[in-house]
UniProtKB/TrEMBL annotation:
Domain No apical meristem-associated C-terminal: 31-156
Organism expressing this protein natively: Brassica oleracea var. oleracea
Stretch list, region Disordered: 33-79
The protein, known as: No apical meristem-associated C-terminal domain-containing protein
Biased composition regions of type Polar residues, renumbered to the chain: 33-46
InterPro entries to which the protein is assigned, alphabetical: NAM-associated_C (IPR029466)
Length: 193
């Protein structure tokens, strides 16, 4: 039946050729004896009339074993961007935590410095007050200066008594008594004076 077909007749129109590839699979190709070189399918004698259309992008993409589906590439890029963003966020958080710790330390140091300054100021003030309290008013010749020092002594004594009442500290006269109670010679082997 096929021999009656005009393509298989010896009129020079088309001939069937048998090819085998290295894997051992045989196939039949039809080629024309009258080659038309203007036709894209006739330009090469090895191309069959049923060759692939190279302009069809969907066959090219899906037929290539090395290409990935578009969704996989997009999801991989999205995952990479998310990972980079998370990395930047984590770096910023670590930097913020370190900065916060440094601020906390410097704040604590500043508070300690302020406490020390207050204590130094209070100590200097107490030294000046003690100088005034232990000043001999009889040695002052001018009555106005003497009155000023008497008023300052009264103010200092009133301030200290008020501080002692607020802090519930025993008065100064008895505060050292607990440490030096045996100065009179009772048990200290010191002679009485």
């Amino acid at each position: 039946m096929l021999r009656e077909d005009p393509m298989f007749k010896g009129d020079g129109v088309a001939h069937a050729k048998r090819f085998s590839n290295p894997c051992g699979v045989e196939y039949t190709s039809l080629e024309s004896d009258n080659l038309n070189l203007d036709s894209p399918t006739q330009a090469s004698p090895r191309l069959s009339s049923s060759s692939l259309n190279l302009n069809d992008e969907s066959e090219n993409i899906s037929g290539s074993p090395s290409s990935r589906p578009l969704g996989v590439k997009k999801s991989k890029m999205k995952r990479k961007i998310v990972d980079q963003t998370n990395s930047v966020i984590n770096t910023l958080e670590r930097g913020n935590n370190q900065f916060r710790e440094q601020l906390k330390k410097s704040s604590e140091q500043r508070q300690q410095h302020l406490v020390l300054q207050r204590q130094n100021y209070a100590l200097e003030e107490m030294k000046e007050e003690n100088k005034i309290l232990f000043c001999d008013l009889n040695s002052i010749e001018y009555p106005n200066v003497c009155e000023h020092f008497q008023a300052e002594k009264a103010r200092i004594l009133q301030k200290r008594s008020h501080q002692q009442q607020n802090q519930q500290i025993p008065p100064l006269s008895t505060s050292f008594g607990q440490y030096f109670d045996n100065l009179c010679g009772s048990g200290s082997n010191l002679p009485e004076y």
